[in-house]
Specification:
The protein has three helices and no strands. The protein has 63 residues and is an all-alpha fold.
Length: 63
């Protein structure tokens, strides 16, 4: 019973977030995207660099 309430709450929060995002102007969406990138770079140590290094080290053998 408790899990269904949590799932319903998460679904409602996601729907509200999607609604608010759809109502944003393109400038607001770009600002949000920039804030998200800055947050990831600051707190995750540049997650983008981690994935770029993984691609660069593959030797093409499929492993």
């Amino acid at each position: 019973m408790q899990r269904s309430k949590i799932g319903l709450l998460l679904a409602a929060a996601a729907a509200y977030g999607a609604y608010k995002y759809s109502r944003m102007t393109p400038e607001q969406k770009n600002g949000l995207k920039t804030k998200g990138k800055d947050f990831l770079n600051k707190n995750m140590g540049g997650l983008n660099n981690l994935f770029n290094k993984a691609k660069a080290t593959t030797n093409g053998s499929g492993y």
